[in-house]
Amino acid sequence: MFQKKYEWQWDQVQQIGKQKKTPYYQGRFTPDIVLERENLYQNLECICTLPKKKSAQQSSGLVLSVAITPDGNKVVSGNSNNTIQIYDMHTGVASTLKGHLDSVSTVAITPDGEKIVSGSSDNTIQIWDINTGKRLHILESVSKMLFSVAITPDGNKLVTGSIEPTVKVWCIHTGEVLHRLEGHLDSVLSVAITPNGDKIVTGSSDRTLKIWCLNEGKLLKTLEGHSNDVYSVAITPNGNKVVSGSCDNTIKVWNLNTGELLHTLVGHKKSILSVTVTPDGNYIVSGGFDNAIKIWCIETGELVNTLGENCGWVNSVAITPDGKKIVSAINDNTINIWGKSEKRKTIRIW
Q: Chain-wide mean pLDDT for the chain?
């Protein structure tokens, strides 16, 4: 059973203390203490903006995609000025990778945290050493306008979606195309791989999601329900649910095994460009053209929090492996990092 989570401010604690039903308030708390019932995603604030210098923001180009290393120490971005930026999450210090000849629309990081895979409108996928910045491989003959790339959990294969209706599975080491998955009727905007590496989920401009067997390249299911492009898909850590964000302004939660639609989340006012799931599998984070980052309970569909409504539209969202920070790519050439202020004290109650 899903456990609801709340965070109470000091005035709420005082009110709770007046009720005989609760044993938590004993008159000993100082006003700066927040009484929390295990919800990491209440009272978040923007704790850092990257790049930190205005001059760097102006020259960095629009941030199109963000990814976080498995250790949570680096943020990698793909940018409209043909570059990849690697930021230290703690210091904000950045390094720049140059080599693409057009916008870098998607980035992903291998499970070992050692390599970056970038996809660009220059018809290439490029693989980089994250520590040295050296380019290791170039995979040629990728369709114009690559939208999405995902890496298998063993780090050996890539899956790509592009302006073509074909999904491609690549060997990351040789660049060989292992499978071409045919079935969508329009551009493949988003791809994701299940945690056990046996299935691919794709979202398309044909308004459907498709579930494929990765090893055989076989179509298993088609999920229908959106009334516009499916721009982003994500899979829960246990591999049981699929989350889809669409240009119809809704998010849908599906049972991956049966294809059953579990919830439709309504709250965004414009197209949703990016969805992701928290590491514990309990929450969805979404962003889009309405300038808002929204956090939802995946079990109930309840809206938990809304962030950054005045920041600009949100191209991409990601979450640190510990679940404590949300990273968002904003259309003002910046990356915002959201989290709890270290000044706040917390007491957990159950």
A: 87
Query: What are 22's two structure tokens?
Result: 């609760």
What is the C-alpha separation between 80 and 106, in angstroms, rounded? 10
Distance in angstroms (rounded) separating the CA atoms of residues 10 and 297: 25
Residue 292 lies in a domain: yes
CA distance 289 to 287: 7
Q: In this structure, what token pair is assigned to residue 304?
A: 């938990």
Q: Give CA 240 to chain center in angstroms.
A: 18
Q: In which residue are the tokens 């063993």 written? A: 154
Strand order from edge to edge, sheet including 293-297 = 272-277, 283-288, 293-297, 303-307
Q: Which of 229, 251, 214 is nearest to 165 (CA)?
A: 229
Kindly state whether residue 256 falls inside one of the protein's structural domains.
yes
| Coil, strand or helix at 54 | helix
Does residue 189 lie in a domain region? yes
Which tokens belong to 123?
């018809």
pLDDT tens-place string over residues 148-178: 999 999 999 999 999 999 999 999 999 999 9
How far apart are the C-alpha atoms of 42 and 64, rounded to whole Å? 26
- At 89 the three-state DSSP class reads coil
Write the burial class of residue 11 (CB in 10 Å: 0-12 exposed, 13-18 middle, 19+ buried): exposed
Domain that holds residue 152: 43-338
Count up the domains in the chain and report the number: 1
Res 14 pLDDT > 70: no
The amino acid at 265 = L
**Distance between CA 81 and CA 68 in Å, rounded?**
20
- Beta-bridge partner residues of 23: none
Whether 32 is covered by a domain: the verdict is: no
Kindly report the CATH number assigned to the domain that includes residue 76: 2.130.10.10
Q: For residue 43, name the pLDDT band (cuts at 50, 70, 90).
A: confident
Dihedral of alpha carbons 8, 12, 18, 21, sign: negative
